[in-house]
Design the sequence.
């Protein structure tokens, strides 16, 4: 687990973008993505099914259940990235 915390305007979204799309892109290490952010992140090509503008525990639980159902017959582990950007409650 990697958590990036900071005050508003401190560059958290910029750091996240650089880690995901930079020279040694971290995003290639994952098979599936869930993104929760007020705006889509162009670094991640993601279907609307796995993107939400707001944090909802019900939505997150539903998507995780779908991913478990989709991957239950797979022989190898699925690497899942969950990005929560600007999620304030």
Sequence:
């Amino acid at each position: 687990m990697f958590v990036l915390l900071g005050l508003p305007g401190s560059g958290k979204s910029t750091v996240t973008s650089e880690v995901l799309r930079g020279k040694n892109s971290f995003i290639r290490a994952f098979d599936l993505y869930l993104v929760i952010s007020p705006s889509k992140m162009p670094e991640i090509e993601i279907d609307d099914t796995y993107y939400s503008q707001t944090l909802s525990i019900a939505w997150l639980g539903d998507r995780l259940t779908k991913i478990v159902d989709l991957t239950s017959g797979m022989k190898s582990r699925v690497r899942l990235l969950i990005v929560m950007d600007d999620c304030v409650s």
